[in-house]
């Protein structure tokens, strides 16, 4: 979770989660970091979206968490692009229930 220090009322509710996955081979392509912001991202203008750093992937979740839906999306859509099918691969996760479910 990333905490922001601002003086505007209501900004204390702004949170984000940073999801990192690192490939330990020096020659491996590295996955982009994913920042999960609170909300649905529906009111963000295309002008603002176009200013996002292309090296970072942005996602939205109602509470800015890496919930089960996000983790399944990450495991199925992002992670496979960075594994070599002909080699053994390991993805280490903690025991958060969204990361241990079927």
Verbal overview:
- The structure is a single chain.
- With 102 residues, this protein is an alpha+beta fold.
- Helices cover 20% and strands 17% of the residues.
- The chain has 3 helices and 4 strands, in the order βββαβαα.
- It has helices at residues 46-50, 68-78, 97-100, and strands at 2-3, 15-19, 34-38, 57-61.
- Strands 1-2-3-4 form a 4-stranded mixed beta sheet, with no helix packed on it.
- Helix 1 links the parallel strand 3 and strand 4 (57-61).
- The longest helix is centred in the last third of the chain and has 11 residues, at 68-78.
- The protein is globular, with a radius of gyration of 16 Å.
- The chain starts with a strand and ends with a helix.
In terms of topology, how is this protein built?
Blueprint: E1 2-3, E2 15-19, E3 34-38, H1 46-50, E4 57-61, H2 68-78, H3 97-100
The counted number of beta strands is 4
Secondary-structure element string: EEEHEHH
Major sheet, described briefly? 4 strands, mixed
Radius of gyration: 16 Å
The whole-number mean of residue pLDDT values reads 80
Note the beta-strand portion: 15-25%
Task: Describe the structure using short key phrases.
102 residues; globular; 4-stranded mixed sheet; 3 helices; alpha+beta
